[in-house]
């Protein structure tokens, strides 16, 4: 095992596939976000859970998936727009149709502007045992620039209510490298967030995604991203501050207190199977070299397919051996655990070093084999897109 690794994931055996449920509704679209979502309305929110349950039933008849699920993840969009009762119904059906393992991790992404002490207690009672809050920043001016529907105080209240409701596995999302943000301001955000004592943090550098309002603002000169130097400084400083606070940096954007890594995402990065439900949700079947399926991100088509008993999902990509090796590198090198050298040989019949000699050479000292695992260092993660292109 690489020196210093104490994660709950290193020696964990795979216990069952994951289940991802996409909740494609938002109260207001944030100007930076390209996740699939539509404006929410009460009628759609009321009927949507039954569509997910119908798709789950359909999948159980197709027998493509072998339960029990070891992780369930309600992602969005804004899953916290669903009533706790609806979440409870979906979980009951997932358990009935496929089973849930005894230690199942059940996560829900929550927008702090959509929750109350009551709804959070309801989610806990419905079976959610991990919450991920989209805090983004604890600076009201930055929250406004990000088009968020909540203030810093709302986010702090949401985290406190969650704790009172009995949640002991809380994650917060932070976005850094905001337009005009200084490294000091990003670190101040982090410091304020740490006072809320989350078990897990996702720290994303702001990405300017095509077809978003921020992309338009960039084109018209109304948005000035931070320089590459400032981005690098923020990334490294966040890493240092979080290491000092006792967090493990276990994936490029993810930090955890020991034992609280997100198992659902870890399984994804390890190419374990997961079933995705809802428009825009991806599934990964681990048969042969692997196949990725998805239901196209179009709510009307999804509703029509599911209501008429059709499978809304289509095949996106069927991997051959070369593609599976490349994806193993792409996903594995994102994580501290890296790519297991012996595991790679057992799976593909070739050593990692023989499969990718040029790509490995290009990473220079930033990629090394330590205790049987190929791992990128911090600078390697910072330049991930550049280095990983050699493996693809
Ligand atoms: C589905 S959202 C989280 C839940 C909820 N919708 C919310 O916003 O509170 C997933 C996370 O992705 C991150 N994210 C989305 N677009 C991003 C972008 N362009 N750059 C960086 N982070 C982004 C945000 O931190 C966001 O909380
Ligand atoms: S960041 Fe969250 S709330 Fe904002 S548009 Fe994206 S999914 Fe919706």
Question: Could you explain how this protein is built, in words?
Answer:
Helix 6 (183-194) links the parallel strand 7 (170-176) and strand 8. The chain has two domains: 18-268, TIM Barrel; 322-392, Arc Repressor Mutant, subunit A (Orthogonal Bundle), CATH 1.10.10. The model is unreliable at 1-6 (pLDDT under 50). Helix content is 40%, strand content 21%. The protein has a nine-stranded mixed β-sheet, sandwiched between helices. The chain is of the alpha/beta class and 392 residues long. The longest helix is centred in the first third of the chain and has 21 residues, at 42-62. The chain binds S-adenosylmethionine (SAM) and iron/sulfur cluster (SF4). Residues 26, 29-30, 33, 35, 37, 76-78, 111, 134 line the site of iron/sulfur cluster. Residues 32-33, 35, 75-76, 78, 109, 111, 134, 136, 173, 175, 204, 206-207, 209 line the site of S-adenosylmethionine.
